[in-house]
Amino acid sequence: MSRKSSSLLLLTAFALSIGAAGAWAYENCNGVGYFALQWPANASVNVDGREGDWSWFDPEFIVGPDQMCNTLGNPIPPKSDIDIAIRAAWTPEPDNRLYVFVKVVDDTLDVDVADMNGGWQDDDMEVIMDADHDGSWHQAADALRTGHQQWTFHVPTPGGYPQVAFLRFNQPPEMQWAIDQGLVQGAVDVKPEAAHLATDVTVGYEVRMPTWDTYSPDGEAASVRHVFTAGQTIGMSITLNEGDGTGRTDQISTHAQEGGAHDSDFTSEFTMLATGEFATAVEAGSWGAIKALLR
Predict the structure, then answer these.
(1) Which of 83, 91, 111 is nearest to 40 (CA)?
(2) How many CB atoms lie within 10 A of CB 113?
(3) What is the CATH number of domain 3-294?
(4) Is 0.85 topped by the overall pTM?
C-alpha cells in the first residue's frame, strides 16, 4: 500500500471518528477534503477584512496553494506571484453562520472591471455553496441559483466596481436580498493601497453569512436556512480569480474544474470540526501528517 493510500485510510478513520457525513469527493484538490473550525464562544468578530479576529485559528488547518488547483489548466503560480491562506469557520445555533477569511499576497492588484457579473476577470474571491451537499445542481451558469450559490467578494473602487459582495452570475435583482439585507456580509482590506495595478499588495477578504439549502428569490421567509452541526460535511469551494493587468490569467480553487462554480458535482467539501476536536485532528498520524504527505 502506498504512503498516500495509507494516509487516506487514516483520514477516513478520523472522519468517521468525528461523525463526518458523506464521502470524500474526487473534486477536493488536496484529495481528501477540508475543515472548518468552530468559532470559539469567547472570541469576538468584526468583519473588516483584517485577520486579528482569527488569531485563535489553528494554523494546521489553513489552506494554501499547495492544496488547491488551477481550474484553467495552468500550473499554480509561484508564491512570488500570488500566495493564498484560507481560514474557514462555523458556528452552531443560535448564530448558525459560516465565516471565511482569505489572505492574499499578490505582486499586482488587478481591479479595473466595473461590471459585477464580470468581476471574475479581475482579482476576486468566490465562496461557492452546496450547503446540503446533495450534489443535485446541474444547471447553466446563469440559472436562478436556488440550490447552488456563487457568492463573490471583490475590491470596490471609486467609479468602478461598486460593492464588495455580489451573487453571481446574471442573477435578477431579487436574488440579491441576502446581501441587501446585510445577512451576507463581506469586507475587503488592501494594503498598501486598493488601486488598479498596485504592486506587492496584501488583500484580506472576510465573510460572515448564513447559508441556505434552498435560496428563494422570494426572500428569507421562502428560503430554507442550512443548520450547521459538528461533524457535518458541506459542499463548498473557495476560489480566487487572479489577473495581472490583462484580464484573468488563473483561477485557483479548492475544486478542480472550472464548472464547480455552477455544478454541485464539482464542488469541494468542508467538514465542520467542533471545539476540542482540533487537537485530535492534528495529532501525529492524523490530519497534520496526512497533509504533509499530500504536499
Answers:
(1) 91
(2) 22
(3) 2.60.40.1190
(4) yes
